[in-house]
Amino acid sequence: MSLDDGYGADSLDAAEIQQLTALARSITPEDNILEPVPDELWQSIEAELGPIDSHGGDVQSISDWRRRAFRPLAAVAAAAVIVAGVVGISAVNGGDDAIVVAQADLAALADGFEGSAEVAETDGGLELSLDLADLPPDEGFYELWLIKDLETGQMQSLGPIDGSGTIEWPDGFDPAEYAVVDISVEPRDGVPTHSGVSVLRGTLES
Amino acid sequence: MATSTLVHKRSRRRYSAPVTGGELRAVDPAETAFERGDEHALKLAYDAHGSLIYTYCKRSLGPELAKDVTQEVFLAAWRARERFDSQRGSLAGWLMGIAKNKVIDQVRMAGRRVSTVGGTDLVEISATTEHVSALADRLLVSEAINSLPDRSRQVVELAFFEDLTHAQIAERTDLPLGTIKSDIRRGLARMRRHLEGSA
Q1: For position B129, what pLDDT does the model report?
Q2: Contact of A104 with A205, CB cutoff 8 Å
Q3: C-alpha to C-alpha distance for B133 and B141, rounded to whole angstroms
């Protein structure tokens, strides 16, 4: 059996191939049969979770988003603590008149990247702040995006970036819809579309 | 012989690009949704992988306990969704990893109750833990193979289960050797991705 001759040395080594082959060969006919899940099992899961909101809090309509932004500081902080899975809410700087209305931990999609993003309401309007570990040098450049739908590719570029900073949130884009903050590495080829290679990505949650 | 020379010449040509991370990641739409924490992601994950998890639980623990544990797996998965990383393995694998831990907990609890009766039962506990671990791996590999596109699956089945050489598979399927090798590589990579998710 010649399974292990030249199988793309970049991804699988001979030992792994042997292991996987042995495992595959240990499969019994019974292992190929999947039982359908019992009826109503999903309903009991749903019942445990309550209404699921992708923003992690209790269910609110998208139009409530703007009203939430005007809550006094204490209420925003308290609500943020209850939100499941959101870590590292940064303290609002008492010096600025800024209220943090959404936050995202950015997941590293490649080694060596780390960061978070925040949307804040200020006197001058909404701002997006990025707090990033130093971006590794690259032949290309880094670009910031707000993504509405990864599937359909609806997104808005906020231009090239070289590190942490704050920019104005673009007019006419609802943070509840364009909630995925994405940083890509782009080749210098003059092509404006997303390269498809993201290094950091996270979903804004309020 | 002329035929074998021809075969060797064909095998040196590369017919397709190596499998890349991008190609692997296109496979399960529930994964992207789950990584984003979309409100529909858990239902997508359940629709895609509920049977796999339930089957594993049922074969390990019986039908009644299987329902409870399957429910716990999906609840735990949703609560831990920020820890899912598709770069480290597939969603199916990740869910199976959660299921394996819960099943092993159940097996150990059952073992503990039994072991108060007599020392000989201890051997049975460890054997059963290994058994449910091995079952998880086999189900993941089976899932990987069964989720391949038809042609790749056929090639992989001929390679693993009928133990044919590449040349024999080429003859049987009338496919170029390069296609056969890349189909098998794709199958192996998908298996590995599921197993890594569960580690």
Answers
A1: 83
A2: yes
A3: 13
A73-131: pLDDT as tens digits: 333 333 333 333 333 233 333 335 678 889 999 998 888 889 999 998 888 788 899 98
CA distance B7 to B176: 9
SS3 A146: strand
- From chain B, the residues in CB contact with A56 under 8 A are 37
B residues 31-90 near A, CB within 8 Å? Answer: 32, 35-39, 42-43, 46, 50-52, 54-55, 58-59, 63, 67, 70-71, 74-75, 78-79, 81-82, 85, 87
Tell me the torsion sign for CA atoms A75, A81, A85, A87: positive
Strand partners, A143: A160, A184
Whether ipTM tops 0.85, in short, is no
Answer for the pair B72, B102: CB distance below 8 angstroms, yes or no: yes
Whether B125 and B108 have beta carbons less than 8 Å apart is answered as: yes
Distance of alpha carbon B102 from alpha carbon B68, whole angstroms: 10
* DSSP for B58-87, written as a single string: HHHH-HHHHHHHHHHHHHHHHHTGGG--TT
pTM: 0.55
Task: Determine contact, residues B98/B71, Cβ cutoff 8 Å.
Answer: no
- Dist. CA B148–CA B156, nearest whole Å: 9
Q: Which residue carries 């089976």 as its tokens?
A: B142
Task: Please give the Cα distance from B116 to A104 (Å, whole number).
Answer: 50
Element (DSSP H or E) covering residue B1: none
Lowest-confidence region among A51-55, A114-118, B21-25, B185-189: B21-25
Q: Which residue has the tokens 């999906």?
A: B74
Q: Under a CB-based contact definition with an 8 Å cutoff, are residues A202 and A106 in contact?
A: yes
